[in-house]
TrEMBL record:
Gene3D superfamilies: Glutaconate Coenzyme A-transferase. PANTHER family: KETOACID-COENZYME A TRANSFERASE, SUCCINYL-COA:3-KETOACID COENZYME A TRANSFERASE SUBUNIT B-RELATED. InterPro entries: 3-oxoacid_CoA-transf_A, CoA_trans_fam_I, NagB/RpiA_transferase-like. NCBIfam families: pcaI_scoA_fam. This is 3-oxoacid CoA-transferase subunit A. It comes from Mesobacillus persicus. Keywords: Transferase. GO terms for molecular function: CoA-transferase activity.
């Protein structure tokens, strides 16, 4: 039986401000960014990432990079090498840059994108899916007939860093999400070497309902409390 109370257990989670947390991101990193549009997007951390102007050659793994996204500033500053996600067509400048060969885009159906992150976090390197079979998104990829239906081999996704948004964290690093704002965030927390989470509130260990915890502390490295609404 474990000795001592739970609040005496050292989890290794750090509590930093946004700029110090973003300093941990290496040059040329691949970065997962949570959020479905604005809900669940770590906007406070995103602004800190934009402020760290020397950081470039980045690969962003996120559902969308719209023209109104905070992180679109990275594209405007020529700091993005590649984006991987599902929805970029609203960002006309990004589409033109892709057509001109200035930025790489890996377009994935949204379900495939989500599953690729989930399986990356589970340590499964690839999977077959019928989604996109027979379309341009399947070109150059291995296919296989399974149960009489064509399937496409997709690579799972992992990243150097995940910057995500949660509603609350306790002082051990356990996370609670708020309604649909959880979207991609819990899966991304499991699929990165370094997970940085932005939260509205930090509470004492024991204050969170165990049944409401969406991400346990084992997947969390740095917690940042939002300094703005």
């Amino acid at each position: 039986m474990m000795n001592g109370t739970i609040d005496q257990i050292q989890t290794g989670v750090e509590f930093l401000n946004a700029d110090k947390a973003i300093q941990r991101i290496p040059e040329g990193a691949s970065i997962m960014v949570g959020g479905f549009g604005f809900p669940g997007m770590p906007r406070h951390l995103s602004k800190a990432l934009v402020r760290r102007t020397e950081l470039d050659q980045l690969t962003l793994i996120m559902n969308s990079l719209g023209s109104v996204s905070t992180l679109n500033a990275l594209f405007e500053q020529n700091r993005i090498k590649k984006v991987i996600g599902s929805f970029f067509s609203t960002n006309k400048e990004l589409v033109v840059a892709y057509q001109e060969g200035k930025v790489e885009i890996d377009l994935l159906p949204q379900g495939t994108f989500t599953e690729a992150i989930r399986l990356g976090g589970a340590g499964i390197p690839a999977f077959f899916t019928p989604t996109a079979a027979g379309t341009v998104l399947a070109e150059g990829k291995e296919t296989r007939i399974i149960n009489g239906r064509e399937h496409v081999l997709e690579q799972s996704l992992t990243a150097d860093v995940a910057i995500i948004r949660a509603h609350k964290a306790d002082k051990a690093g356990n996370l609670v999400y708020k309604k649909t704002a959880q979207n991609f965030n819990p899966a991304m927390a499991t699929a990165a070497k370094l997970t940085i989470v932005e939260v509205d509130e930090i509470v004492e260990v024991g204050e969170l309902d165990p049944d409401s915890i969406g991400t346990p502390f084992i997947f969390v490295d740095i917690v940042v409390k939002r300094e703005e609404v």
